[in-house]
Amino acid sequence: MKKVGKLWGGRFNVLPSQEIIDFLSGRDVRGVSACDERLVSYDLWGSRAHAMMLCKRGIISPRDGKKILKGLREIDSLYRTGKFKLDPSKEDIHSNIESLLISRIGIESGGKLHTGRSRNDQIALDMRLYLRDQVLEFGDGVIQLIEALLKRAGEHRGTVMPGYTHHQHAMATTFGHLLLAFAEGLQRDQQRLEHWLDIFNRNPLGAGAGYGTSFKLDRNLTSKLLGFDGPTENATDPVMQRWEPEADLAYAVGVMMNHLSTLAQTFILLSTREFGLVRLDDRHCSGSSIMPQKRNPDSLEVIKAKAAFAQGILTSLLSVGKGLFMGYNRETQWTKYWIMDLVDESRPALSIMTDVVKRIRVNKAEMLEQARKDFLGATALMEWMTASFNLSLREVKTVVEKAVRYSEMEGLEEVSHDSLKRALQEMRIEVSVRKKDVENVQRPEGWLARAQSIGMPSEKRGQEGIASLNRRLGGARKVLTTRKRGIEKAKELLSKMERTLGR
Amino acid sequence: MKKVGKLWGGRFNVLPSQEIIDFLSGRDVRGVSACDERLVSYDLWGSRAHAMMLCKRGIISPRDGKKILKGLREIDSLYRTGKFKLDPSKEDIHSNIESLLISRIGIESGGKLHTGRSRNDQIALDMRLYLRDQVLEFGDGVIQLIEALLKRAGEHRGTVMPGYTHHQHAMATTFGHLLLAFAEGLQRDQQRLEHWLDIFNRNPLGAGAGYGTSFKLDRNLTSKLLGFDGPTENATDPVMQRWEPEADLAYAVGVMMNHLSTLAQTFILLSTREFGLVRLDDRHCSGSSIMPQKRNPDSLEVIKAKAAFAQGILTSLLSVGKGLFMGYNRETQWTKYWIMDLVDESRPALSIMTDVVKRIRVNKAEMLEQARKDFLGATALMEWMTASFNLSLREVKTVVEKAVRYSEMEGLEEVSHDSLKRALQEMRIEVSVRKKDVENVQRPEGWLARAQSIGMPSEKRGQEGIASLNRRLGGARKVLTTRKRGIEKAKELLSKMERTLGR
Amino acid sequence: MKKVGKLWGGRFNVLPSQEIIDFLSGRDVRGVSACDERLVSYDLWGSRAHAMMLCKRGIISPRDGKKILKGLREIDSLYRTGKFKLDPSKEDIHSNIESLLISRIGIESGGKLHTGRSRNDQIALDMRLYLRDQVLEFGDGVIQLIEALLKRAGEHRGTVMPGYTHHQHAMATTFGHLLLAFAEGLQRDQQRLEHWLDIFNRNPLGAGAGYGTSFKLDRNLTSKLLGFDGPTENATDPVMQRWEPEADLAYAVGVMMNHLSTLAQTFILLSTREFGLVRLDDRHCSGSSIMPQKRNPDSLEVIKAKAAFAQGILTSLLSVGKGLFMGYNRETQWTKYWIMDLVDESRPALSIMTDVVKRIRVNKAEMLEQARKDFLGATALMEWMTASFNLSLREVKTVVEKAVRYSEMEGLEEVSHDSLKRALQEMRIEVSVRKKDVENVQRPEGWLARAQSIGMPSEKRGQEGIASLNRRLGGARKVLTTRKRGIEKAKELLSKMERTLGR
Amino acid sequence: MKKVGKLWGGRFNVLPSQEIIDFLSGRDVRGVSACDERLVSYDLWGSRAHAMMLCKRGIISPRDGKKILKGLREIDSLYRTGKFKLDPSKEDIHSNIESLLISRIGIESGGKLHTGRSRNDQIALDMRLYLRDQVLEFGDGVIQLIEALLKRAGEHRGTVMPGYTHHQHAMATTFGHLLLAFAEGLQRDQQRLEHWLDIFNRNPLGAGAGYGTSFKLDRNLTSKLLGFDGPTENATDPVMQRWEPEADLAYAVGVMMNHLSTLAQTFILLSTREFGLVRLDDRHCSGSSIMPQKRNPDSLEVIKAKAAFAQGILTSLLSVGKGLFMGYNRETQWTKYWIMDLVDESRPALSIMTDVVKRIRVNKAEMLEQARKDFLGATALMEWMTASFNLSLREVKTVVEKAVRYSEMEGLEEVSHDSLKRALQEMRIEVSVRKKDVENVQRPEGWLARAQSIGMPSEKRGQEGIASLNRRLGGARKVLTTRKRGIEKAKELLSKMERTLGR
């Protein structure tokens, strides 16, 4: 009895990596874990900071504080070693942890952990800690993709290709300049992530159920212990608008996914048999269950699906946040599931695209060939005539339009000297143009060499564009590093205070 | 060492049922299974029908056919007894089942199952079978909710309450009439579900990868064996538009969830301390982790979240279906996850709301009391004056508006005889109105008794509204029953043919 | 001093028609008229039916009735001759008309028109009348587009072209079969429009402010006079859910625009220089303000924009309809503007696309040429080997995959006899394949001739697909005609009753 | 013959202002002007800067430059005096202006204006200039609303009211603290607007059709003359992503409208007869066409509609920006109409809400009364017992929950001494609580006085919250002022250069 392996793949040199297989198979054969699994370590961190503050403020005794902190650290260990599983009969992560703590250290001490807080500020805290880490991870991913784009852009700063508008040949450009355009978009994505941190890296702990507490909390201390820039300044606001940090991230991700989806669509088209300008690495393609010859750009198509998903999640988040009543509304609980799904779906898109960019093969010969076709040099000719004969661009344009039409009628793909002369004559413009010039001027390399202003696709300007983006990338890297250092320091400070309290 | 149970609940007589707890806790502590788990039985059914057809057509031999069908039935048994688990290393359900079949009966026979089909038509088939069952289940749920509404509407067809517009007291109505309004909306939801069946209960199997096959398939036979009204009539269409049956269901669910969300919001407001007109059963409420007195209408708030979710999913489905290229596009795979999530999230909302409606307590005394306040009878007075004195409504309205203003200045909540006289005088309208009439006419019961046209809130008309809806409900029930019988018959026919083949 | 005309166009043989210019220039240079302009004739019709009913019921006197009806007819004449303009200082169309009526016939009679109704049911009525007409117009437009598709599908039922999946060459198909796929989708759009009529062609007049009236209205009569299937059966429902008829149309339009957008995107790609399989007529293209050679498929791109717009409008409609409170909510007024904008934007898309389909030129030679490339016949070869040698498809697929890879290494675009033999040997399958067969079997025409099951792209089946759709189209035409006749009859009846009353 | 005025209003002391009437009547009786009307002055400014740069660079002669600049200034004058109307037969604003210029100064000079640019970068420029002004205007509006909120928050920093969660009485708060919560949200809206300026105040002029030009442009100079921070750094990016500045503004507006909608919904509920805690000014309400007593909070309901609209527009913008192909795509033209509609619809919402906040009347007595009801002090009691007897909060909570239940059974609305003793006994907690303390502790004023941590609703902390926000507001004002000054300076510089050139 014979066996068979994969349902396709006989044609491929390299099969997809596990990461890509996971990316493509989506949730067909893999489930999604309980959302609060992702919050365990954040909830414990928040509880430790809260307990430490209660202790320092004298709201609970050092003895109770020590017991609670020890208990929480033990639960943390259990969790890290896979011995703490969420119990679905307890409503949520908060109840799970508090119940376990109480069962381990007793209600007399354990029952004091929740003093001066509510699940409303607790989950707002957990989510901000979770979202902050996601923002930083997205930041890393965006930077890596920009780096890959800049590297390839550098290699291809002189690789001439047709620039398109409306899916039609427009003017000459370079492949490097194209990659740079996407890098610019991603740099704005990076700015949106930084902006999230500017707005939302503030500590909601202490907001209670939305109206605070009569216990004298030290919200500056918990902010410090949790790596925040400071406490939120109104107790009701973060509880009432518990969809806004989620929406801001969803929007930033949505725009980023749109950028990726346009890059994906561009690569899909450029890699068709018909365009034939780039070739995806085998590992980003998959085969068919029946067609033996297929090599499908699945990774890129999936990215488009995820862009559509981001739009849907954002719609849900904005819809839930419309027309609430003052204070907490339970419907905002669902924002947790939505943003987590979006994070899970979209985060891998960055590394997949980074890999695609790194490995994509470029058909330079065909690119140059195509850049000479379909009257791609007509604009260059028009600009040259305008400049050379001090004519009005409007008139020259009409001339060249006519010349294109006559040349097309002759079956040509660039403006011929004859048709240009005919057009000039018709328009009664008396200038003398040499055949050689007409030909040379339409060559894409020549036009590119002349496109020297800021942002243009000449090799020199491309190099400057790369340098400029590299400078800004340096700034972005620094922001991320500083943020991460701040978080690490907060954790270290809490641990140190725990040790001191322990003595 | 003392223990503690739930973090809240000391105030409650009845705690939420497990169904409600699950509904409220969402995905906090429960994960989501792999999507293809939901498709196992559909995929097997489709494969059995396909194999039977291949056999009947002589495309595979009876010997191979028997082996394949036996193998598929065995996998079905394994699945039913929990012994068949999806292997994540195989891409999807189709690969999982085909691989297992091949490993059990060998590639010589097992390798023939996929003859004349592709994963593209296979998943289109699986999804239609899955979606059809969901549509039928939603149909059952909608009917049950309408039944509950009609029952309570019958009980409260005479329960006078204030009708609101713009959140303000407008005119008298009954609680029964209000429930009936929602029943009408749900009946349209039912029609949308029926419409889904009219459009999409057609068999895509045979579409292959979107361009058919050279094997001579009998698509009418597979349609019959799978309970379809017939085959889809173009191979490319169902593969290219693989988001449309999903979108149609998402839209139907979206409108339905909007109906539920408005019913939810209405109950939330009517049950506030301030309105105090209805009281939710304890089991639909939950408590707070810190405020001992809380009784929150969480079930209803969650329904609003799920309405927002439906909107987001629909957005994603429509966005992914925009501007595709001819044939299959991989991004449509994601529609599977989206619609499954939506089904999972929204289906329980119907039974929760049915339970809420069944158990909601009505404060009839307060309703009547409120219906006498805030000039609720002013319109009745206006209509009565218009009719009694053959005046122009526009003039009378101005009179009553003035009378309301004067009465309000006196601190009254209904139009006084004096203020009416003053207004009439001012407007120079000479009619003589008796004090007793002015008072009587403003009583809500009187006005309601006079509201006798179709669809109006009088008790008699309410009764007719219930009867009308009951008639239409009978039709809806019959549609569902007929559809379900059709599906059962198809399954029986396939089993019978398998037995015959086996002989 | 020389002059210049259009900024582009020198290259074009035919310039866009005014309809297309309007379609493309969008709202750049054209404003949008006040929304209620579109409602004038509906509001007058509704008022006439209402006044007639009041008269027949004896709620107003025949004398008042006659005056009112005469006044309304006069306003209608003024409107038709452009002499009635909306006065912005009056809030809306209802106030405008009622005020004008009163100023013309006096408040004693004119002030009675509003007896037994409210602006809430009045606008609900106006919108249903408006929407019904739009639904019928969309229906006409969809049918015309289907007709155009069927006509071209008939011409090209034998025009072989590559079928694509994932933007890659997949299997052979015909251009006619492709057009038919879109016609099928549009037929579902037609069904959705019919469904709208089934659900919403009911008369809300009499719902008042949402709670009816004490006047004894004859809602069956007004329903008859306005061409409705009957009155809505609950006064609150149509006022509370004043977003749902709008949303249902927006959804139907949204799906339809998605169908058009995918057809548009398919034409855009097929008409690129690189694909070169179709050519749009000049009149659907536009030029550039600087690039003399451009011929951009603007009409098709704009259709994609409008598909995105439909999605947004649907989002707004569903968002506004979420979590309302019982009765009327002012926010639903905005649904009027949204749906009117959507209608204005999307209605022309149908006729533009119909024109595109009618005029598109097909490069049959290139289509056939491409259908022979890129291993398009590999699946045909696999199916043929499976059938001919009674092999398992799975094994044959692996063989052909390998053969594709070896042939590709040789620079070929179809499977060579040698590579197939090598693959068979490697897989230890001992069958003897003739070179001639290997070649013939891969020819697209041969495979197409064998694709004979329902829905497949062979010429014969294509013909049957066209016939099937033509039959269904006949049914659709009949539905529209019957609906339109019903509306005409209602208008005639009202006029007749007015004449009788006048005597 | 008598006349009648408005269809309602007899009950009102103050009728709505024209601004509010316009806000409420929406587009019923007012049309929308052509979109490019809004761009005339931006397009002229851009053309002047471009012409000046061409001149300085020697691309056109000083003579041509002077003629062009003079011509453009004349068109500007015509426009300002209403003598320049868009001609719909010309496609857009760019063609309109260029044609007019050419007809006035001849094609020899006028035909040179378009040298080195394309309509693609021209419209990208116009939109950035337009959007920048809108962002600044929104910024002004947001600041004014925050100021109004802070002023009223200051007045009501001691106005005790019930805080709600889940629409239920939760804990005591102040009206001032509630207003402050919304002010905090708006301050984030302000930050999003600033962020827009950080990202998008860059000059796209020079991008041409997306691939630049061979003319040697001085993009730094045009940036300076147009008040930009500098040129965009890649020619393709701003043309390809022509939806992104629009989407960023739509998102910022969407979140802001959500904030307003929640404030609106809160005011709507608090102003119902049932809540009775605030009263809207007459001018923000409207009446009914039939119910004489109505006073509807229409202004606030309309704001909710506009929040839904913002969500829809954002959906369209993101949908159109998904999966584009490299370079310009015509569908992005529609982003212009969408964002302009959103701006027109949402900008007035800020000033309307500012007016609502300024004029809203607060029922302090009823607020205090309500704050003593429904066990609002139960949490205060729990916190006090926890603190006073060094008990575990978890245990005390169970005690108080039971006590609430027992008190409720006695028909009370606050925890009685007896029920508390009973609960303590049941839980076997031996502490002695005095009746007087139980009563005092539950008083809202007392609890509020103790809520002293950052962000809490005590009067003192409220004052600090106001001060903190005032500080941040100062920063925001400075950002706006600086930006506006920058724009003015750019205009002055251009005028000065024109004068110099003129000499």
Question: What does this molecule look like?
Answer:
4 copies of one chain form a homotetramer. Chain A is mainly α and 503 residues long. Among the domains of chain A are: 119-156 and 181-200 and 234-362 and 458-485, Up-down Bundle (Fumarase C, Chain A, domain 2), CATH 1.20.200.10; 373-442, Ribonucleotide Reductase Protein R1, domain 1, CATH 1.10.40. Chain A has 19 helices and 4 strands. Chain A has helices spanning 18-25, 40-56, 62-80, 93-105, 107-110, 119-155, 175-200, 219-225, 236-240, 244-270, 298-320, 334-359, 364-370, 378-389, 393-409, 417-426, 435-441, 444-450, 459-502; strands spanning 160-165, 168-174, 278-279, 361-362. Chain A has a two-stranded antiparallel ribbon with strand order 1-2. In chain A, strands 3-4 form a two-stranded antiparallel sheet. In chain A, helix 2 (40-56) runs antiparallel to helix 3 (62-80), helix 2 (40-56) crosses helix 8 (219-225) and helix 14 crosses helix 15 (393-409). The termini of chain A are far apart. The model of chain A has no long low-confidence stretch (mean pLDDT 94). At the B-C interface, helix 5, strand 1, strand 2, helix 7 and helix 9 of B face helix 5, strand 1, strand 2, helix 7 and helix 9 of C.
